[in-house]
Amino acid sequence: MKVLFVDSVHPILSDRLTAAGFSCIHAEKSSNEEVFEHLKSVDGIVIRSRFPLDASRLQTCKNLKFIARSGAGLENIDTEYCHKNKVVLFNSPEGNRNAVAEHALGMLLSLMNKIVKGNKEILDGEWDREGNRGDELDG
């Protein structure tokens, strides 16, 4: 089976697919026209977000069995087309879980400590020391 790598992903994926007997085609630096030509003959596609895989593009993939999206969502892939044509979809929703957790924690700390409000007021030439005191929780 031939797998087309459209975008750069961690090399372990290519290494493991090759070890399992897959033939990997690396088109990460190829022009879109070259990639579209490869699409006609591959069994699998590994993509991030280089371009959308809509129905018109997927129809040219006569041997397509799977698409692996290196990312959380499948918004750039026509999932309805894939479902109808029995193309298996993979994604990696856990990839950004740490960043999401860190962002949520940062936003909570910012809110509790009035960082955004205080910053805006300072930029406007104000200093409301008491009004911008943060909330401390007793443990």
Give the tags.
single chain, 139 residues, alpha/beta, five-stranded parallel sheet, 5 strands, elongated
Question: SSE string, helix = H, strand = E?
Answer: EHEHEHEHEHH
**What spatial form do the alpha-carbon principal axes imply?**
elongated
Main-sheet strand order equals: 2-1-3-4-5
- Which class best fits the helix and strand makeup? alpha/beta
The proportion of strand residues reads 5-15%
Instruction: Count every helix, treating DSSP H or I runs of 4 or more residues as helices.
Output: 6
**What is the total tally of β strands?**
5
**Low-pLDDT regions:** none
Helical residues, percent: 25-40%
Question: Overall mean pLDDT score?
Answer: 92
State Rg: 23 Å
Summarize the structure in words:
The chain is an alpha/beta fold. 37% of the residues lie in helices and 14% in strands. The chain contains six helices and five strands, in the order βαβαβαβαβαα. The protein has a five-stranded parallel β-sheet, with helices on both faces. The protein starts with a strand and ends in a 16-residue tail after the last helix.
Task: Give a brief outline of the structure.
It is built from six helices and five strands; from the N terminus they run βαβαβαβαβαα. By secondary structure, it is of the alpha/beta class.
Task: Summarize the SSE layout with pairings.
Blueprint: E1 2-5, H1 11-19, E2 23-26, H2 32-39, E3 44-47, H3 55-58, E4 66-69, H4 79-84, E5 88-90, H5 97-112, H6 115-123
Parallel strand pairs: 1-2, 1-3, 3-4, 4-5
